[in-house]
Amino acid sequence: MGEDVTRREFIKVAGAAVGGVAIGAVGGYSLIPPKETIVEVPRDVEVERAVPEWPWTYQKLDPESAAQRAYDSYWVGGCSYAGFNGIVGELQAEVGFPFTQIPPEMLKYGGGGGLGWGMICGALNGALAAMNIISNEYSGVGNELIGWYTEYAFPSYEPSEPTNDLTLVTSVSGSPLCHVSVTTWSNTAGVKESDTARKERCARLVADVVKKAVELMNAQADGIFAATFAPATAVTGCQSCHGKDGVVDNVATKDDCSKCHEDPH
Question: Which of 15, 78, 103, 129 sits at 20 to 30 Å (Cα–Cα) from 208?
Fold first, then answer.
């Protein structure tokens, strides 16, 4: 090795070589390099590794394991954090770099529909952010997840060791909005939003969402994903006039208008 190559430059080259091998992939799966190809670097030496270009390589996950992580994460950082960590946390454990470079806490802002504003459900917010990392075709699986959410009877997930051992009723929100989802369920259950049962419901809901998201991502990785969700008749009817191709052209949504606008005219 020539004298003009500094120790730091050598480390950078070695680190890049390790990173390049470690994150290589075939068919969407991360590869573990043969032991003899790994360059040993002292633990106290900082190795610079180039972050791969987006999207990052996805390795299929166990939906049940991801759901359990999401449920547990809810009690640590809320719904949006749980939706994100349920997926990214599993990828950190199963794949490692580069997913270990992402702090799941960055999605904590999404709790309660975005800092308590009741906008898009935090579980969806977190899961969609994770989907966006691993695929540049995220719109297909993302739309399917949102559409499924609006029609699903939450919660159905049964944790092996629930934080609160309760029997919960289910409800269909008809909307991806936190405000509508929580209020609909709370009214159905006959409890206040601040009740422990509502919090347990949302923890299990996040697990349901993450499980479904992983199933969709796994199907996409296998090349067998097919969208099945179709908008409600109320949506297509309203959009024919109020959508971008309609006469009025003053509404931008895929949501069911009749959920909040019982008499829109």
Answer: 103
Q: What is the mean pLDDT of residues 200-217?
A: 98
Residue type at 10 in one-letter notation: F
Are 113 and 120 a contacting pair, CB within 8 Å?
Answer: yes
User: How many angstroms from the chain centroid is the CA of residue 66?
Assistant: 10
E strands, the chain, are 25-26, 29-30, 153-154, 171-172
Identify the band that residue 123 occupies on the pLDDT scale cut at 50, 70 and 90: very high
| Count of beta carbons in the 10 Å neighbourhood of residue 154 | 23
Q: Do the Cβ atoms of 23 and 17 come closer than 8 Å?
A: no
What SS3 class is residue 208?
Answer: helix
Mean pLDDT computed over every residue of the chain: 84
Going by C-alpha positions, the residue among 118, 123, 101, 121 that lies closest to residue 207 is 123
Cis upstream peptide for 55 (omega within 30°): yes
**Which residues 6+ apart lie within 8 Å of 217 measured at CB?**
58, 60, 61, 87, 131, 134, 135, 141
